[in-house]
Amino acid sequence: MERKTFTNKKGENFSYLASKSENSKYNLVFFHATGFNAFTYEILFNQIKELIGDDISIYAIDQRGHGLSKATSNHTELKSWDIFVDDGIEFLESIEGRVVCSGHSMGSIIAAKIASICPEKVSKLFMIEPVLYGPIESLKFRLMSFLRLNRQLSIADGAAKRRKQFSSIDEAVSSYTGRGAFTTWSATWIENYLRGGTTQSKEGIELSCSPEWEAATFRSSSMDSWRYLKKIKIKVKVLYGSVGSTFSSQAREVLFNLGKNWDPIYYNEASHFLPMEFPDSVTKELEAYLKE
After folding, report:
1. CA distance linking residue 193 with residue 117, whole number of Å
2. How many Å apart are CA 72 and CA 84, to the nearest integer?
């Protein structure tokens, strides 16, 4: 994957990874999860290229406030995920031809909203562990936000307290291994997350996605997704796990009753970090989906 820069209409610079094949059949555009970055998923991207070869080009952007992107990211002004969707649409417009939108966690919701808004541009949608609650759950959260009540998200509280400076990549890998969100990750996945999401500092390295921005992203999570999902008519693959999933049981029941175009793929032994745990299976599911 080659690192490149995309500049939006406001003149803001976004870093992204690309592996472009001439005359490829598919343009895969991938959006990462909250707090992560494109390079986090390098193992997955490499396996996709190895399996599908020159038939696919891959593009993965560091979203605003994440990775090596330099776009403005004031955490006090972040109120929704709309800005990520707008950024994603501009990025897609820079890619020639139709695209396959994909993403993990928050990224899968960004991908889905873009697919709904830009049906002429998106030919397929491949979602992994979406952050999605049922309509009633979503309404409750939206009401709490409207009334300015704290949604009491422990994951956001944890992100806000995250240590952001380390003496080296090795120290950070050692600190994260076997703990919290990284419990099921291999050392290589953790190292890739850090290499794509840290900058040099006086102390050594510092997380480029600040704890404040990560927490604000969690707290501003989209609760208006259903009005977008209902408009999607292309066949969609939705991969999800059983442990700590952000795809609630109520949301599953409603989503898979929207129409036969919604195709669930359930992993009994996977957690929310399904791509890190089962990259081989995810790659094979994507290949099969592209051939349908």
Report:
1. 30
2. 12
Please state the pTM of the whole predicted model: 0.94
Asked if residues 209 and 66 have their Cβ atoms less than 8 Å apart, the reply is yes
Indicate the helix (H) or strand (E) that contains 266: strand 262-271
Cα–Cα distance measured from residue 155 to residue 86, given in angstroms and rounded to the nearest whole number: 25
The pLDDT assigned to 162 comes to: 73
- What is the pLDDT, as a whole number, of residue 146? 57
Query: What is the tens place of the pLDDT at every residue in 170-208?
Result: 999 999 999 888 999 999 999 999 999 999 998 899 999
Q: Report the alpha-carbon distance of residue 229 to residue 93 in Å, rounded.
A: 21
Give per-residue pLDDT as tens, 226-239.
999 999 999 999 99
Contact 203, 165 (CB under 8 A): yes
> Are 239 and 129 contacting, i.e. CB atoms less than 8 angstroms apart?
yes
| CA–CA distances in Å: residue 239 to residues 247, 265, 271 | 10, 5, 11
Spatial separation of the C-alpha atoms in residues 225 and 118, rounded to whole Å: 15
Tokens of 173: 């890998």
User: Which portions of the chain are predicted below pLDDT 70?
Assistant: 142-161
SS3 of 122-137: EEEEEEECCCECCHHH
- State CA 125 to chain mean position distance: 13
Contact 118, 89 (CB under 8 A): yes
Yes or no: say if 237 and 285 are a contact pair by the CB < 8 Å rule: yes
The pLDDT assigned to 219 comes to 85
Cα-Cα-Cα-Cα dihedral sign, residues 196, 273, 94, 213 = negative
Residues 268, 96: Cα–Cα separation, whole Å: 38
Question: How long is the chain?
Answer: 292
Confidence at residue 144, expressed as pLDDT on a 0 to 100 scale: 63
Q: Is the dihedral of CA 59, 64, 66, 72 positive or negative?
A: positive
Token look-up 């031809």 returns 97
CA dihedral of residues 150, 151, 153, 158 (deg, nearest 10) = -20
